[in-house]
Give the backbone structure.
Amino acid sequence: MDRPAGDDGTTTDVDVLLTTEGTYPYVTGGVSTWAHQLVTGLAEKRFVVYSVVANPNAALRYAPPPNVAHLVQVPLWGTEDTAEYNPRPGWIARRIRRPGRRFSEEFLPAYEQLVVSVALGEGGPDGLVEALCVLSRYAERHSLKLAMRDRRTWRLFRDTLAAHPLYRSLTTYEAIDLARTVYRYLGPLDYPTDLPAVVHASAAAFCSIPAVVLRERHGVPFLLTEHGVYYRERLIALGRNSTNSPYRVFLSNFYAAVVAMAYARADLVAPVARFNATWEMRLGVDEDRIHPIPNGVDPERFPLLRPAGSGGGPLTLVAVARLERLKDIHTLLRAFAVVRTRIPGVRLDVHGPESDPAYARSCYALAAQLGLGESCRFHGPTTDVGAALAAGDIAVLSSISEGFPFAAVEALMAGRPMVATEVGGVPEVVRPPYGALVPPGRPLQLAEAVCAMAADRPGLARKGALAREAMLRSYTLEVFLDGYRELYDEVRIRARGR
């Protein structure tokens, strides 16, 4: 790979800097599965994984393969100073260096531009990019923490918001909390990395900040992969926030600004589903920059061990999903409560980690409240998804939001017909006659679809075989990896022609 030169003219032997957020290698499933398949499958390329995480206490869930040169952990919260988790030459001196002339001449104007961009939506992506590049240069020589704690920074933030009618009702506590949040979200600026041949962001989120900065300052080609619709999922989360409207509006605008910036600066965007491409074009991405690459699975990991519906045992529904709100396990449990009244002896097996412990507890409480008893079993995370699926007869997916549905491809590859919610890229994968779709958040409709499919128990094996054939045609690991090999070459060609 041809490699961009740094400010000092040096290059590195890193082929791809892969940036992730809240996923690989600290969380299993979904985007993490995609990332691990990518770095493991492209063994000929040298990766650095740059992982933005909530706090520094995350435990590794994947062992990075030998071609991962190193792992950079970027905790947004749980640290006093980001330098604690970013030891490098000169960082001690940088931490204690007090704001000086550069603070007034560089930091404050760039910080004001950033606040105006994210809070008021002024300046567009160009203004935000310009501000981030100045702040990243400042962070190389000085402490962002000291700059953010300076009284002049706080006054600038407070006065900028107070001058706008929308934010005048913010309490002092809320304004302080938002200022603190801005500092934490700027954490990626404090973690410089070697210059790669390509920077590959796994989401149009805060993990795209280093990608944008590398592109703007050093000309590094920027490839963006989208799994879900990040902005939509952030809005769903904000809808559960109990704070007042101005506070939520600020965060919504912040997320929107970062997403728009990532879309505007990516040389190529590789959504994992055509559904995402539609959303991206609505948000301003030119169609010729969009190259969908669906995820793939290794067929050998999902052998057809047992035809669906075979044997004389009770019919078993199987769901492979993290216990979190976006997977809407509550709807699954309520649907199963209805199915139990219509199919004697039916069971439900749920395999997945407690990604949201509070939500997981609510799932266990709901199962008890519905009186599901031993017919519903939560098995936790599994290291053998193929075997977990083979033990079931009909796979179920109840998500309220999905990008590319890994769980659906795995279930269908394992020969399990599926009932799923019609969200995101699910309709591209789950199709008749081996699949049925229902609206999200509708337990009764989900239950009725499951019962309709289960009514033809002898036909489940035939539907499962058709499902596997369809996955083998379009969603194998080989097709997935070849797609990214080609795209890494193409994004470099695109970057040379800017």
Q: What stands out?
A: The radius of gyration is 24 Å. The chain has two domains: 16-289, 299-475. The domain at 299-475 is CATH 3.40.50.2000 (Rossmann fold). The chain has a mean pLDDT of 90.
